[in-house]
Amino acid sequence: MAKKQFKAESKRLLEMMINSIYSQREVFLRELISNASDAIDKIYYKALTDDALSFDQDSYYIKVSADKENRTLTITDTGIGMTKEDLENNLGIIAKSGSLAFKNENELKDGHDIIGQFGVGFYAAFMVADVVTVTSKALGSDEAYKWESQGADGYTIVPQEKASVGTEIMLKIKENTEDESYDEFLEEYRLKAIIKKYSDFIRYPIKMDVTGQRPKEDSENELEDYQEEQTINSMVPIWRKNKNELTAEDYEKFYTEKHYGFDKPIKHIHISVDGTIRYNAILYIPEKMPYDYYSKEYEKGLELYSNGVLIMNKCADLLPDYFSFVKGMVDSEDLSLNISREMLQHDRQLKLIAKNINKKIKNELQSLLKNEREKYEEFYKSFGRQLKYGVYSDFGSNKDVLQDLLMFSSSKEKKLVTLDEYVSRMPEDQKYIYYASGESIERIEKLPQTEIVTEKGYEMLYFTEDIDEFAIKMIMTYKEKEFKSVSSGDLGIDVDENQNDTKAEQSENKELFDYMKNILSDKVKDVRVSKRLKTHPVCLSTDGEVTIEMEKILSAMPD
Ligand code: ADP
Ligand code: MG
User: Fold this and answer.
1) Could you report the per-residue pLDDT of 446-457, keeping only the tens digit for each?
2) Which bound ligand lies closest to the C-alpha atom of 92?
3) Which PROSITE patterns match (predicted)?
4) Which ligand number lies closest to the CA of residue 34?
5) What is the pLDDT of residue 34?
């Protein structure tokens, strides 16, 4: 039986496709600029193998110009152009990508920059335009052609005069409707912003005629408008530059330009990985906490680029929660994008990158702690709590990554110490890592329970944040030393108690103790004689896992 071809209502199909692929209309410009960049890249690659062709960087550019009066937006490139057949095949057949074919034909694998692959991006133009006119002259051809379409009704191709090789795409921007305005796509500042957002790191200059104002020549106070051609994009992304060529200021400037924060970052991490998965990243450890950091509004994530084109503003999967303060970006050519190029097909590559980044951040924090203690403490004041939450969450599965990064106030030098510092100076007879919890250091120091530990000359960690004790419970032991609250029943300290003495005292005062127990019946389990007090008459202690401080927090929590 003869096979029949599917028929499709192509106009509807095209509309459905365009509107379901893209979440934002503005990406049409990203798509057209990416195509223009691909077209220039193709000349570049041809020139590599063809001696008759030379590639003079200065003659290749992309230009975006808006004409408000006629409601047209034109994107011109000096790229490889399209023959009549190319226009038929690449713009006349939906989902046919000339760029993908080019990559395959030329076996471009390593270091390629060609962006196109799905053969649908071009049609994004119809999200904002009623009519799209493409005039193109292919490299090595004497003829030029004009392709025109009003959406999927079809298209026409006719010969057209064009002096130079390359492509010009003219969009007739839609009229505003009651609900939708399209004027923004004719506004200089908007176009500049869209170019900056998505196409800042396209390798070729993206130019625009920009209006500026200057003082009139023979008048001091009057201003006049003038037009000037400007390159809008930065072109070479800082992350592709050699680390040795970059200064601390360069990284700070990038941080500010990208609006990662208003502070100056404490540290930057520049990563270039050329392994199973290739990627570049620039990460920052901020100094100050964003105002919404410990709130639900705060969104973690890194910018994700594919080949220099922005894919996602905040890719959350790249950062674990405990490093949610890290800012920055990742660029990889190995991501498998989905058709909208706003998401990924699968996340295997992303997971690899995330794992790798996680390790780098940890190492960087560790070296900061070791080599730049003051800076680390500054950082820790802002984000230490997040690290402690990290230890506590996921049932302590992150403790190995994080425990060496923790710091607590200590009774020794009244400053922050690490667990390693604490343990390494423990006297031999000290069995436990002691800690005391309270609202503030001043209050903790007044706790009667601390006296015996202080008397022994043992160091104590001061837990002043709610999360401290919960985090420690997840760590359980550090370098084989258990943690012990000073208010727990057995402190493991020989108090030189004469057992008989205590017992005698206990029975002599039995009546008093029973009386007290009776009054406090629903508040305490027992009332006992203690030898651990020095200057205080009485103290509270606990037997179980949950200390008094933890109980306070637990009972304050909403059910
Ligand atoms: P993709 O870029 O994913 O291949 P598009 O729909 O964006 O898909 O473009 C389809 C094809 O049209 C491209 O692969 C390319 O061959 C051709 N094309 C589009 N724009 C241009 C241009 N400015 N210059 C040369 N060829 C172009
Ligand atoms: Mg494309």
Assistant:
1) 888 888 888 888
2) 1
3) HSP90
4) 2
5) 96
Q: What pLDDT score was predicted for residue 545? A: 65
Q: Please state, in angstroms and rounded to a whole number, the distance separating the CA atoms of residues 134 and 35.
A: 13
Predicted pLDDT of residue 111: 45
Distance 35 CA to ligand 1 centre (A): 5
| CA of residue 352 to ligand 2 center, whole Å | 27
Choose one of 38, 77, 169, 204 to mutate for the ligand 1 pocket test, by most ligand atoms within 8 angstroms of C-beta.
Answer: 38
On whether the CB atoms of residues 27 and 115 are closer than 8 A, the answer is no
346-388 pLDDT, tens digit per residue, is: 788 899 999 999 999 999 999 999 999 999 999 999 999 999 9
What per-residue confidence (pLDDT) applies to 87?
97
Query: What does pTM read for this prediction?
Result: 0.79
Q: Which helix (H) or strand (E) holds 357?
A: helix 348-371
User: How far is it, in rounded angstroms, from Cα 262 to Cα 199?
Assistant: 24
CA atoms of 78 and 86, how far apart (whole Å): 16
Q: Which ligand has the shortest distance to the CA of 91?
A: 1
- Nearest atom within ligand 1 for CA of residue 101: 14
Query: Which atom of ligand 1 lies nearest, measured to the CA of 121?
Result: 7
Q: Which of 264, 308, 305, 316 is nearest to 287 (CA)?
A: 264
- Count of Cβ atoms closer than 10 Å to residue 254 Cβ: 21
Q: In the sheet where 267-274 sits, what is the strand order?
A: 267-274, 278-285, 327-332, 302-306, 309-315
Q: Which residues line ligand 1 (CB under 6 A)?
A: 31, 35-36, 39, 77, 79-80, 82, 90-91, 97-100, 116-122, 167
Q: Which atom of ligand 1 is nearest to the CA of 117?
A: 3
The predicted-structure confidence for 79-100, as pLDDT tens digits, reads as follows 999 999 999 999 988 888 999 8
Give the residue-averaged pLDDT of 517-537. 75
Q: Which residues pair with 478 in a beta bridge?
A: 481
Predicted ipTM?
0.99
> What mean pLDDT is predicted for residues 476-499?
80
Is it the case that residue 113 has pLDDT exceeding 80?
Answer: no
Q: Round the CA-based radius of gyration of the chain to a whole number and report it.
A: 34
Neighbours of 345 (CB within 10 A): 11
**Could you give the 3-state DSSP secondary structure of residue 267?**
strand
Ligand 2 centroid to 314 CA: how many Å?
A: 23
What's at 74, amino acid-wise? T
Q: Of 38, 261, 240, 17, nearest to 124 (Cα)?
A: 17
Contact 265, 327 (CB under 8 A): yes
Q: 48-85: per-residue pLDDT in tens? A: 888 888 888 889 999 999 999 999 999 999 999 999 99
Using the mean position of ligand 1's atoms as its centre, give its distance from the Cα of residue 518 in Å: 87
- Tokens 């120091």 correspond to what residue? 445
